[in-house]
């Protein structure tokens, strides 16, 4: 259902709840890749934080946000928090 198709607040709330569940599932999937990255980085003695990659991800998110008509600065700020959490998760796996 699209937002414009919603006729009641109950429908809007149900769709928001559905999207929130989907977002959480995507974050869980992303966390799996973060864990795998840490497993690969460990034997290679790679750091959890690779600044060039951090900036690449942030710029990509900004581009995606702009393409979707969203505030790139807001989503880049959100993603910096996601990245910080991801790096902390990697460091835990790496035993740092």
Automatic annotation (TrEMBL):
Gene3D superfamilies: Chorismate mutase. Its EC number is 5.4.99.5. It comes from the Bacteria. One of its GO terms (molecular function) is carbon-oxygen lyase activity. The keyword Flavoprotein does not apply. Substrate binds at residues 13, 30, 41, 90. Pfam families: CM_2. SMART domains: CM_2. SUPFAM superfamilies: Chorismate mutase II. GO terms for biological process: chorismate metabolic process; salicylic acid biosynthetic process. Coiled coil: none annotated. Residues 3-94 form the Chorismate mutase domain. The keyword Cytoplasm does not apply. Keywords: Isomerase. NCBIfam families: CM-like. This is chorismate mutase. It comes from Stagnihabitans tardus.
């Amino acid at each position: 259902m699209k937002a414009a198709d919603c006729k009641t607040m109950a429908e809007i709330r149900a769709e928001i709840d559905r999207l929130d569940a989907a977002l959480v599932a995507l974050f869980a999937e992303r966390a799996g890749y973060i864990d795998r990255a840490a497993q690969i980085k460990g034997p290679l003695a790679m750091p959890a934080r690779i600044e060039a990659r951090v900036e690449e991800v942030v710029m990509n998110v900004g581009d995606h946000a702009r393409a979707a008509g969203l505030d790139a600065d807001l989503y880049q700020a959100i993603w910096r928090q996601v990245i910080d959490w991801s790096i902390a998760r990697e460091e835990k796996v790496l035993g740092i």
